[in-house]
Amino acid sequence: MHGPASPGWLLVALCAAAGAYCLLRLRSRVEEQRRTAGAEALMAFGMAAMAVPATVFTPPGWAWPGYAAVFGGAALHTLRAGRAGRRHLHHLVGDAAMVYMAVAMAASPSGHAHGGTGVPVLTGALLLYFTGYVLLSGIRLVPVSGVSAIPAGALAWGDRPELVRACRLSMGIAMVAMLLTL
Fold this sequence. Notes:
The chain is mainly α.
């Protein structure tokens, strides 16, 4: 995750903006928005913190196990909640990916998760998953002409489905970028 400074700062900004938007969604009147917004805010802010360039700040040794514990707890919370559905399965995969990246970074004193050639199998599998997720999310953003199930102005801007999809798409792109630098 600690690659060149410019892309790192772009990831920090993208993830922090997504996290701030997710925090605003916590105030929504729509229950499903509130239910998923907290998990998505945690993911976004966690990715923002992990993406800070190492030239600016190198986390202490205890930070990586801390990340693993936080996202392991988030995964357990998702499992314990017993919610079914694609969104919650995606949160579970995202939490597992964050645990994996934190453990890989903790095991690497140089700041790069693997020193050998090639891509580890789990990294490759996560890259395939998140790349597919990004492509599908991008397709879902394409508007369907003439179809509007929600009247204009009926929802607050924090409840707009297209903004939620764009936020999720940006977090998926950030996850792919972080996995590529792993």
